[in-house]
Amino acid sequence: MTDALERIADALERMSPPALRAPDFDSADAFVWHVSPDRLIPVQRVNRVDLSLLIGVNRSRDTLLENTVRFARGMPANNALLWGARGMGKSSLVKAIHAEVRKSGAALKLVEVQREDLPSIGRLLNLLRAVPHRFVLFCDDLSFSHDDQHYKSLKAVLDGGIEGRPDNVVFYATSNRRHLMPRDMIENERSSAISPSEAVEEKVSLSDRFGLWLGFHPCTQDEYLAMIRGYCDAYGVAINDDTLRAEAIEWQATRGSRSGRVAWQYFTDLAGRQGVTLD
After folding, report:
1. DSSP-derived pairing of the beta strands 80-84 and 134-139
2. Residues of the chain below pLDDT 70
């Protein structure tokens, strides 16, 4: 009889888990949100590069930095959507700016949220609402398909519903798409829906809820080479300009693209060949 009661109690606890306890937010500068069960996992070392090494994104860098500094100081700030060419430093910029603002002593925390966990975002907001820190919620590579309902959960972050978005939370997202869904899907909605304009507007208008749209575009060859030279100088990798130019251009040709990510991949190979660690 006792065993049966214990099994029933365990089943009820799984169906209605206890309220989530806030972690020790002083233990780390960044956290990752997980569900089943809900928890915030501290990240002791964030994978990021220094802000000074991000080249070719000056306007987006300055705009997002100013917005984040205002937010960290307790002033009004906008949610931000960083969209555009892949590999051009969108997520790197968010992490680098967080580190830059932290240098001033601001109690600013970075919380990464996976796209598939967006339905749980309301529970996360309720947890953060009562915490005396300020939080940048960060969702990398955000996009939606035609039958994806996760975008409705995101509205709770951007608009806040009846409670309103917590004053100590701002949301930054990166995406390859300005409207967070493929263009051919938008056109399909227009052609197949009973009320085409309403069907499209419901999803496309989600991006309108971001106060800042920051575009990232493919870099020029000079910017690409400058990125690599910046990495070499920062990590103490010696190579003359002619050799760097020849190897880097050959590397981009084999990859079929030119971006900040390709620049870092070439530099990683170069550092490895020279026996230089990237701590």
Report:
1. unpaired
2. 1-22, 145-153, 156, 160-161, 180-205
Please indicate, yes or no, whether residues 230 and 122 belong to a single structural domain of this protein.
Answer: no
Instruction: Give the separation between CA 247 and CA 250, rounded to whole angstroms.
Output: 5
Q: How many folded domains does the chain comprise?
A: 2
CATH number at residue 92: 3.40.50.300
Same domain, 96 and 227: no
Sheet strands side by side (includes 169-175): 39-43, 30-34, 108-112, 134-139, 169-175, 80-84, 212-216
The per-residue pLDDT for range 131-150, each reduced to its tens digit, is 999 999 999 988 776 555 66
CB atoms within 10 A of CB 75: 9
pTM over 0.85, yes/no: no
CB 251 within 8 A of CB 244: no
Distance, CA of 32 to CA of 17 (rounded, Å): 20
Task: Say if residues 61 and 97 touch (Cβ distance below 8 Å).
Answer: yes
Domain coverage including residue 235:
221-273
What confidence tens digit (pLDDT) does each residue in 205-248 have? 677 788 999 999 999 999 999 999 999 999 999 999 999 999 99
100-116 burial by CB neighbour count: b if 16+ within 10 A, else e? bbbeeebebbbbbbebe
